[in-house]
Design a protein that fits this description.
The chain has helices spanning about 15-25, 45-55, 65, 85-90, 95-105, 125-140, 155-165, 175-190, 195-210, and strands spanning about 5-10, 30, 60, 110-115, 145, 150-155. The chain is α/β, with parallel strands linked by helices and about 210 residues long. Helix 7 (about 155-165) crosses helix 8 (about 175-190).
């Protein structure tokens, strides 16, 4: 059965990452970084990284422009905070195109994994944006790779967030979908990318008012 995984490269060497991906029979690695570049980990820069994967028989696709969480369009950011608005992003044409490409790969029987920098899926748009969208709209359960011997699927991740958000106070009368929405919103507010240009524009407006 075709599976969709996700993994973060922080704290991992390319060889260590490759070993984990091989363990789960991943055939295609899909980069969902808006900018496939890293000062801290240059070995994960797009060109060098894709070459490394190709040398080891793994396919690489860069879908960061479509599925990344740092879009170029200002309309996809909250006007007040400057934070990326995941709801708007999920409805945008580029994101929809990226989702269609992703599903096409899965329909072709390819075991794929999304990759971004954040090691913890709870703090990354792999789960908070893409994983939630796929689960809600296509009933696709992304499997987040924690280690070579541990997976956390999207449903489990969301349950963990809700449980912590409510301190475990959930009963048969609880509206789980509402609790899920609130828990994800809080998590997104904590970790969504904030566009620095909004801060600069805000400062200019404040100065002009003085």
């Amino acid at each position: 059965m075709t599976k969709l995984f996700s993994i973060g490269y922080a704290g991992r060497s390319p060889k260590g990452l490759l070993s984990i991906l091989s363990h789960f029979n991943v055939e295609l690695l899909i980069d969902v970084r808006s900018n496939p570049y890293s000062k801290v980990n240059p070995e994960y820069n797009g060109v060098a990284f894709s070459r490394f994967l190709k040398e080891h028989g793994l396919k690489y696709a860069d879908l960061g422009e479509l599925l990344g969480a740092r879009p170029e369009s200002k309309s996809l950011y909250d006007r007040q905070s400057g934070a990326a608005d995941y709801q708007r992003i999920s409805q945008s044409a580029p994101f929809q195109k990226g989702i269609n490409n992703l599903i096409a790969a899965l329909n072709n029987g390819i075991n794929a994994a999304l990759i971004c920098a954040e090691r913890n899926p709870e703090t990354c748009h792999r789960s908070l944006l893409i994983g939630d969208y796929l689960q809600t709209n296509f009933h696709i359960e992304m499997e987040h790779i924690i280690s070579a011997d541990k997976l956390l699927n999207q449903r489990e991740l969301v349950h963990d967030l809700v449980y912590r958000d409510t301190s475990g106070n959930i009963d048969l009368f609880s509206d789980f979908e509402q609790l899920k929405s609130e828990a994800l919103d809080r998590q997104i507010k904590k970790y969504a990318y904030v566009n620095p240009t909004y801060k600069q524009e805000k400062l200019k407006i404040q100065r002009n008012r003085r």
